[in-house]
Amino acid sequence: MTNNKVIIIAEAGVNHNGDIALARRMVAEARKAGADYVKFQTAVPELVISSIAPKAEYQKETTGGGQSQLDMCRAIHLPLSDYAPLCDLCREEGIGFMSTPFDLVSIDALASLGMDYWKIPSGEITNLPYLRKIGARGERIILSTGMSTLEEVKAAVDVLEKAGTPRSRIWLLHCTTQYPTPMEAVNLRAMLALEALGCAGVGYSDHTKGIEIPVAAVAIGARIIEKHFTLDRNLPGPDHRASLEPHELRAMVQAIRNVENALGDGSKVVADAERPNIEVARKSIVAARHIAKGELLTEDNITVKRPGNGLSPMLWDTVVGTRAADDFDYDTLIHL
Question: Which ranges in the chain are annotated with CATH 3.20.20.70?
């Protein structure tokens, strides 16, 4: 991250359903929405999932229970050979490319693509060989922390650091691994607890419905936002229902940029945009009736009214008890 801009990752994941044409369309839609990166998920399913691994409940709800998790993933993953062309397409489109590897072979397959960041998913946070392999590269890492305690996150960061990646190159994303995530399970303030680990920064990987939670995350300090998107929520597959459609992704990006612009630098100063209204909204000391030159100024013959281009009412105690420097008509500004 080279500037203060929030990084927005449009998580295509496996929402292409194993169709390279859909994946290519997702690249274009992510770019049109204004995302900084489009991210996929790279895996050799047989190296990630055993034949006895059950589906998650949300996967059963979205894809049915008759198919194994392995068979489901075989059907929706692209072959490793497709990721280099997708990376090239991203460069042509002007959007950053990322893909999350889920096994050691996939790490090797992505290593030559020159990704700006390695994205480690929540499920690999306790995978010691995997963490060591990515950490040994010494490149920038984004680590999702769903399903983990702060102690487990610290342990993973320690592994990455000992393997060769300093904390200054590791970003931590708070995440709740449920699709979709109920609002009461978000615990957005936990993102702030991750700051205590002294890494490069924190962010948020969102699985809620809608866009308000990632926008709120930016308001409280997220520097990276990751959000699933799909071309159509009605497509078959495990993640579509918890994903944004392109028009919603565009709305999220715009809302984040608006909040980002509104946050400012934190110093309390007069904004240029409000400076013309000082004279209109503030008040000055004025004559409450006609006052003759030399007359004693008292709380009975002066008052406070707009506009604010005369003596400030903060000088009230200085003015009261002095003599009028001139004749003052009703409602005219007092001067000393």
Answer: 7-263
pLDDT digits (tens, 9 = 90+) for 45-86: 999 999 888 877 778 777 777 778 998 889 899 999 999 999
In the CATH hierarchy, which top-level class contains the domain 270-336?
Answer: alpha beta
Tens of pLDDT, residue by residue over 261-319, are 999 999 999 999 999 999 999 999 999 999 999 999 999 999 999 999 999 999 999 99
Backbone angles phi and psi of 89, in degrees to 5: -60, -40
Q: Average pLDDT of the chain?
A: 95
- What is residue 16's three-state secondary structure? coil
For residue 275, how far is the Cα from the chain centroid? 31
Q: Is the pTM of this model over 0.85?
A: yes
| Token pair of 178 as six digits | 């449920």
Q: What is the pLDDT of residues 164-185, one digit of tens each?
A: 999 999 999 999 999 999 999 9
Q: Are 309 and 282 in contact (CB under 8 A)?
A: no
Q: How far apart are CA 251 and CA 258, in angstroms?
A: 11
CATH number corresponding to 7-263: 3.20.20.70
Q: How far apart are CA 76 and CA 45, in angstroms?
A: 10
175: left (phi over 0), alpha (psi -120 to 50) or beta: beta
Q: Give the residue ranges of DSSP H helices in the chain.
A: 20-33, 45-48, 57-63, 69-76, 83-93, 104-110, 128-135, 150-163, 190-193, 212-219, 246-263, 278-281, 316-319
Q: What is the pLDDT of residues 187-210, one digit of tens each?
A: 999 999 999 999 999 999 999 999
Token pair belonging to 201:
């920064």
Q: How many CA atoms lie within 13 A of 287 on its CB side?
A: 21
Residues 213, 174: Cα–Cα separation, whole Å: 12
In this structure, are residues 96 and 38 in contact, taking their beta carbons and an 8 Å threshold?
yes
d(CA 124, CA 153): 11
Domain with CATH 3.90.1210.10 in the chain: 270-336
Q: Which residue has the tokens 């503030």?
A: 282
Distance from C-alpha of 182 to C-alpha of 176, rounded to nearest angstrom = 9
